[in-house]
From TrEMBL:
Start and end residues of each VanZ-like domain: 68-197
Record-given protein name: Putative membrane protein
Source species of the chain: Lactobacillus acidophilus (strain ATCC 700396 / NCK56 / N2 / NCFM)
Domain of life: Bacteria
UniProt keyword list: Membrane, Transmembrane, Transmembrane helix
Coiled coil: none
Keyword Lyase annotated: no
Transmembrane segments: 36-53, 65-82, 121-142, 154-174, 180-197
Classification of source organism: Bacteria, Bacillati, Bacillota, Bacilli, Lactobacillales
Amino acid sequence: MLFFGPLYSFLAKQYATNINHFALVKLTLLALDKTVFYFLIFAVIRLIWLLFVRRRRSIKSEAGVWIFAFYLILILMLTTFRDTYFPWQPNLNFSRPLSDVNLIFMKETWKMIYAPSRLDFFYNSFGNVLCFVPFGILFPIVFSKKESFLKTTISGMFLSIGIETLQFLLMTGVSDIDDVFFNTCGAILGYLIYILFKKR
């Protein structure tokens, strides 16, 4: 890790043997570390672009662009590019059988309900909903001219499908139709929150 290495080392020494799911802590810190790295690259490119563009956004809209970029990078690092740091490191696996993709709606989620540990169920359902709520809030702010419930929902769904496809090709997760459903629900919830605050 370039930025959070010392923090992770400290937490690992103190809590690695005491926390059952410490791997999630490692995954989160690694994702944040990579997000900061790529966000800095985005910031440089964005600032250069702003120097030459004639038509500029409002401060609120521009802030939305920066937050949205940080969010997208973070969500990709958490879900897809887990095992790699630089863009030339991932290996696409086109020989992976399509049978690894779960296309039966709620099949795996239903199993998790009756599993001994409910953590996987809450992580898979509520976690997938919550991680797409920021998308539903930020998308209509960044793309204000295309602001609509349908466009936000469809864009959230396609982002989720893209993530599931990359997870399948990179073998960094389980590609599941349930994830697409919960992610899309999160985008819808985020858009409703956006509309609520906009009216106020």
